[in-house]
Amino acid sequence: MPKHVYILITVFCLGGIFFIFTTQGNRKKEENAFLKLIPQEYRSSVHLSRDNPFTEEKASIGRYLFYDRRLSFNQTRSCASCHDPAFSFTDGYRRSVGALGDLHQRNSSPLINLVFNKHLTAADPSLLFPEEQISNPMFRVNPIELGWKGNEVMILKRLKEDPFYKAKMKLAFPNDEDPFTVKNIQYSLASFVKTIVSLNAPYDQYKENQRELSELEEQGMALFFSSRLNCSKCHGGINFSTPSVNDSDGDTIHYFNTGLYNLNGTGDYPAYDQGLYEKTSDKSDKGKFRVPTLRNLTFTAPYFHDGSAETLDEVINVYEEGGRNKLTGSLKGDGRKNPFKHPLIIGFNLTAIERKALISFLFSLSDSSIIKNQSYSNPFTQDETKK
Q: Of the segments 3-7, 13-17, 111-115, which one has the largest average pLDDT value?
């Protein structure tokens, strides 16, 4: 082999090795930058997409985009319209409203601690990261939420014409000739959302020996973790949303039918939302929804996937009865007899004081600092020049 060819090959190989190590080093640096936002004891549980390494620049521009109504095709809604920090990033409605005023099929989910979740949506197990899930509100057409489908060019042009965004996007994506792409908007929004961490509830402080729970809260905690009620079998982990229930293959079950509905005695849920069944077409998946977090319940009423319970007392009553028996209206049916209800939902008996204690404990999982944290608030209200 000629000497000059050998030299070229050697340089090429060394260059490739240098690129690999540099890329890995940068990715590790970016991952560490994010982990600094997470308390030490929780860092091993962080679940991040490798396709979107974290940078402060992406999170910063994502925060502006999150609150900007220009992100909807008709400039009427922003991400924050359905995910308001005052409600722990929900909206207080039974079912959220899209850009055209149409009702969403579900109650908005709190956007807290998403980096600890391996399943993000109520009934789609294929979406594992915020970068993937964000396509739903952007491109969904039934109902339209932000209305990006068919309007991508118009919305990106609108953002690109803003000098502020033009400068910020260049900082966030310095290697892109034109950083105004759908993917970059999604990566920016996801980067911001991943920073929303809520781990400072009274219960967290109790676990860190920083405070005591009240006698009533302690009684409720004992009930919550008891085999008599089995609450913690479904509501475990950092977010009180990770079940310790397995299927026949030994895999964790994340989606459950809890007997909220049983229309016509056939196991059906309302036509606008049949849960996991809409993804799998498996009849036994009718009415199955992902276990929701129990954090910040003080701020996230109404409850259940469709907001059909106004209070925690109503929620607990459903589990006490082993399902909901709706006697009147178009959605009447005895959920206690739903053929697809999970065997864990069998009911139990509580005294009045036990019910009060359980609710007190559940409220002790609420972190009021989340609604006051300026790092998550609307940046436009803090800087009038960028409105």
A: 111-115
Say yes or no: 270 and 327 in one domain. Answer: yes
From residue 320, give the alpha-carbon distance in Å to each of 40, 278, 324, 350.
Answer: 38, 28, 9, 8
Q: For residue 166, give the 3-state DSSP assignment.
A: helix
DSSP run (H or E) holding 289: strand 289-290
Tens of pLDDT, residue by residue over 224-233, are 999 999 999 9
In terms of domains, do 235 and 336 share one?
yes
Average pLDDT along the chain:
92
Task: Report whether pLDDT(280) > 50.
Answer: yes
Domain limits at 104? Answer: 56-198+374-386
Q: What is the DSSP string of 97-117?
A: B-TTSPBPSSPPPP-SSGGG-
> Is the domain of 244 the same as that of 328?
yes
Same structural domain, 32 and 60 = no
How much is the pTM? 0.90
| Residues in Cβ contact with 341 at an 8 Å cutoff, skipping those fewer than 6 apart | 257, 258, 259, 287, 322, 323, 335
CA pair distance 259, 71, nearest whole angstrom = 37
Looking at residue 2, its pLDDT comes to 62
Claim to verify: residue 146 and residue 279 sit in the same structural domain? no
Question: Do the Cβ atoms of 96 and 276 come closer than 8 Å?
Answer: no
